[in-house]
């Protein structure tokens, strides 16, 4: 809980500053990759430059992730329960208090957004490998990076929502809006500079992401409203 809306916004800004530093690091990495990609010592050259430009504690934090997930045999995984389950099925919206109605709305929309992001990542992998010429490799990797980061941030935003860390949900969703806008811009560039027969396909993917942005903006708005209803500020 926060004592005021100003404190809520301060925590938002604190997390946002951290994410912006991550974004700056990623942008710089891609710029250096484009510069050194053809050199044998590419990785060493990139890391030497990054160490000169970013704080040591920040670089150390990127290497500190040591959680090792338990990997299951994908052939044994049955996703029917995941696809078919809906914890809200037995409860009608009108039977819930206002904050639960809003939480229900966030959860149901979140499932739709997550599905769209998953599909976008897999779809782009196919386009990248099968259809796109290699000369568009750098922009193609950037698109995959931002889509994947969007998916990761959205999963984190839903985890934060379930923990009632709504300021984190808001910040992460705002970053996704930034990432998706970058993907749309990159898709427009590739559509303009790439093969003519791919133009309609790429622009249609950009249009789908513009529709997704509307859902993200609604998710941000509802998250802020939920914080107010729950008395978080």
Could you explain the architecture of this structure?
This protein is an all-alpha fold and 233 residues long. 75% of the residues lie in helices and 0% in strands. The longest helix is centred in the middle third of the chain and has 34 residues, at 98-131. The N and C termini lie close together (7 Å). Mean pLDDT is 83; it is low at 66-72.
List low-confidence stretches: 66-72
Can you count the beta strands? 0
The global form is flat
The ordered H/E elements are HHHHHHHH
End-to-end separation in angstroms reads: 7 Å
Q: Rg to the nearest angstrom? A: 20 Å
Strand content: under 5%
Question: Which structural class should the secondary elements be placed in?
Answer: mainly alpha
Helix content: over 70%
Multimerization state: single chain
The biggest sheet, with number of strands, parallel, antiparallel or mixed sense and barrel status, is: none
- Mean pLDDT comes to 83
**Total DSSP helices:** 8
């Amino acid at each position: 809980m926060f004592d005021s809306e100003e404190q809520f916004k301060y925590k938002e800004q604190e997390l946002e500053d951290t994410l912006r530093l991550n974004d700056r690091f990623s942008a710089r990495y891609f710029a250096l990759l484009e510069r050194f990609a053809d050199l044998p010592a590419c990785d060493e050259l990139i890391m030497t430059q990054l160490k000169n430009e970013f704080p040591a504690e920040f670089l150390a934090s990127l290497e500190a992730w040591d959680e090792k997930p338990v990997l299951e045999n994908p052939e044994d995984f049955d996703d029917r329960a995941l696809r078919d389950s809906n914890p809200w099925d037995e409860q009608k919206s009108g039977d819930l208090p206002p904050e639960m109605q809003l939480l229900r709305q966030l959860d149901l929309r979140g499932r739709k957004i997550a599905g769209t992001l998953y599909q976008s990542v897999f779809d782009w992998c196919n386009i990248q490998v099968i259809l796109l010429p290699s000369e568009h490799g750098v922009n193609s990797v950037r698109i995959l990076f931002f889509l994947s980061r969007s998916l990761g941030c959205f999963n984190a935003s839903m985890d934060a929502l379930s923990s009632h860390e709504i300021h984190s949900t808001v910040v992460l969703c705002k970053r996704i809006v930034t990432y998706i806008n970058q993907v749309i811009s990159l898709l427009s560039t590739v559509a303009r500079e790439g093969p003519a027969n791919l133009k309609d396909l790429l622009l249609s993917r950009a249009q789908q992401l513009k529709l997704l942005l509307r859902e993200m903006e609604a998710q941000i708005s509802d998250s802020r409203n939920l914080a107010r209803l729950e008395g978080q500020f």
